[in-house]
What we know:
Blueprint: H1 2-10, H2 12-39, H3 42-47, H4 54-75, H5 78-82, H6 88-107, H7 115-142, H8 148-152, H9 154-176, H10 181-201, H11 209-214, H12 218-229, H13 234-255, H14 259-262, H15 266-284, H16 287-292, H17 294-300, H18 306-331, H19 337-361, H20 374-391, H21 394-404, H22 411-440, H23 443-460, H24 473-476, H25 482-493, H26 498-507
Protein name: General substrate transporter
Subcellular location: Membrane
Pfam family, one: Sugar_tr
Amino acid sequence: MLPTLKLLSKHRAAVGVAAVASTAFALFGYDTTIAGGVIALKSFQVEFKLSTNAVKSADISSNVVALLNSGAFFGALAPALLSRYIGRKVLMTIAACFMLLGGTLQTSAQPPSISMIYGGRVISGFGVGIVSSLIPMYIAETAPKQLRGLLMSFTELSLVLGSMVAYWTVYGCSLHLKPTSKQWRVPLSLQVVLGAIILSGSFIIVESPRWLGKQDQWDEAAKALQWLRGASSSEEVRVELAEIRAQIEEEIKATSGRSIKELFQRQNLFRLFWACGIMVLAVGTGQTAILYYAPTVFKQIGFTGQNPGLLASGVFTVVKVVATILFLTLVVQNFKRKHLFLFGSALMAIMLFTLGALLKTHPPITGHAANNSSSGRTMMATIYIYIIGFTVSWGPLSWVYVGEIFPTRIRDYGMAIAVMVIWFFNFVISKWTPLIFLNLTWKTWMLFGSFNAIGFIFAIFLPETKGLSLEEMDVLFGLVDESTRRLDIEEHLGVITDTTMIGMEKGT
């Protein structure tokens, strides 16, 4: 713990940048979570006429949730298409503007028409898609390798905090506000507040030194890296700049300067396979279904009242936050990525198979607002233990792993494809989960449990990345051999001239 604290103190600038950038994931978490809670409010169901038909209600509810994912699918592509011209800072500003506009439209909706809700969800989703692709890359590119896993996991903490705020806001409005439009407008309006915070943060962060290097702005890259690493670490900056320069020039030579071609090199295709596989299986764990429709999930196990269901959902998010804090302080720096993936898959599979079996053998008794039987409490416990398993493994580490494995010149493309994959499957899950709950009932959890078993097998073969610099990933995945990379770094150490270092020092 003490070595980690010393590293955090030494690299406090990088820690601050990661913390500010991660606020975008708070709105990401809030946006993806808020719809499930708002839809569960009686005031929303009555005003938008959802309470008259169960199938119609499930269809509209799934549309409200799924449209955010459809917008996010296209938004995830924006950083790859625009990164040649626009840096990470400006893209974060653009994403915040989309989130502000989307939140405003949702809050201003005029029932019984649902069109402004739909439109606002798509626009917000586009902003969410941008930050979901952008922020893990940005933090990976600015963090020191010793802290990269920890700092990239800030995104998960922000995401679960956003989810927690969403559910408890809905629960508070359910308890203390009359069932009028104000009851559902207040939770939706907080999207605007969070969007304004993200917009402000985008103006105070530093540009990614690796993006600057890719644009051949080496003096600016040196200044940004010097600021991130601290004024007393000139030699460390020289070495890191040499690694970045060696990697970029090796990639140019190998692909005749065409960056998109690099994605289809055999070794990079393997990276894309691992990234997309992780994202598909992260959705397949079942966490997305529970997060989006937590009140429905708790209703299935016997918590049928509006407030008991929302309370159980709120406790679910608190468990996630506590588990994430434990992950950041005790786990991520001390365990290999691969071992955590394996542990999480095993624990989640066991819990979901148990939940499905209990629902089959001890279905909840109808007519009660809360299921206080021993089987009901056990089912709730399996959900809470399950989410601990997700939060210390696939939750944060899927974003960490995908954000760190691609080389600098194609990181935008690789990240965009992987994130588009997760948003596509999020769309599928969010669109069909209400109908799956209606038709499969307890078999739903057997299905998700099976996906976790597949995830366990997948993780057995996963290459380990903990403790490696971003440039060392090329050696791990066989794109370049270690001796060649070492010679290139030594050659490029001479390129980081005294003039560049003097310019760096003047910029600090």
